[in-house]
């Protein structure tokens, strides 16, 4: 009887270890590597959906320690938790159409960096971004609604407006320039982000999501 119990206990132990490995197997990877590994799982259609258990929910009741900030588009095809195969408490996410960044967004990022100690910020653009398309097709006409503020943000980057005609033929480049704009804006944001970037205590990286294959490429 004792032997049977020990065997049963071993099976329980084995199963719980396996569970822990599934959920935390990449805990030792750097934040960027964790995102890369998660996206690889997603793109290969083999996500593990980590950190969605009741245990994880309980662990997060008192505090959160997300390992990265992701600024992404609100587009329904680009949900960061899914495309990076992460779960509860893993990512601090800011989403706006066209991943545009204004005062509220910077404040949210500052909170994650100062108070939650995130050391990595990703600005994520994506293929076929409607907000970038709206800018490219605006032809100088003003929208009568608040969408105009998104168009204005995308057009506020000199590098974008100076080549807008060629960007109409190359919307992918327009998306990438919009990401670059966001990265530059955050890297120069004072009083919180710029000093940390200058001291190499904070990494801000642009990234691009490909709708065709589900892969994220990072500009390092
Ligand atoms: Zn978009």
TrEMBL record:
InterPro entries: Carbonic_anhydrase (IPR001765), Carbonic_anhydrase_CS (IPR015892), Carbonic_anhydrase_sf (IPR036874). It catalyses: hydrogencarbonate + H(+) = CO2 + H2O. It is an enzyme of class 4 (lyase). Its cofactor is Zn(2+). Keywords: Lyase, Metal-binding, Signal, Zinc. GO terms for biological process: carbon utilization. Residues 1-20 form the signal peptide. It comes from the Bacteria. PROSITE patterns: PROK_CO2_ANHYDRASE_1 (PS00704), PROK_CO2_ANHYDRASE_2 (PS00705). Zn(2+) binds at residues 73, 75, 126, 129. PANTHER family: CARBONIC ANHYDRASE, CARBONIC ANHYDRASE 2. Belongs to the beta-class carbonic anhydrase family. This is Carbonic anhydrase. It comes from Solitalea agri. The lineage of its organism: Bacteria, Pseudomonadati, Bacteroidota, Sphingobacteriia, Sphingobacteriales.
């Amino acid at each position: 009887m004792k032997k049977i119990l020990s065997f049963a206990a071993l099976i329980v132990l084995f199963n719980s270890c396996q569970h822990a490995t599934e959920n935390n197997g990449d805990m030792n990877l750097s934040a960027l590597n964790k995102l890369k590994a998660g996206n690889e799982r997603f793109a290969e259609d083999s996500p593990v959906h980590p950190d969605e258990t009741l245990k994880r929910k309980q662990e997060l009741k008192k505090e959160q320690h997300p390992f990265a900030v992701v600024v992404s588009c609100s587009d329904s095809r680009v949900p960061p938790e899914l495309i990076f195969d992460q779960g509860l408490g893993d990512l601090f996410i800011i989403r706006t159409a066209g991943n545009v960044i204004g005062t509220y967004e910077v404040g949210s990022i500052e909170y994650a960096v100062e108070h939650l100690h995130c050391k990595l910020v990703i600005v994520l653009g994506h293929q076929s971004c409607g907000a970038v398309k709206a800018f490219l097709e605006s032809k100088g006409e003003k929208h009568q609604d608040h969408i105009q503020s998104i168009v204005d943000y995308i057009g506020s980057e000199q590098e974008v407006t100076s080549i807008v005609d060629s960007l109409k033929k190359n919307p992918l480049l327009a998306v990438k320039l919009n990401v670059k704009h966001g990265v530059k804006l955050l890297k120069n944001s004072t009083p919180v982000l710029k000093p940390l970037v200058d001291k190499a205590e904070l990494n801000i990286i642009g990234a691009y999501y490909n709708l065709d294959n589900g892969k994220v490429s990072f500009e390092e």
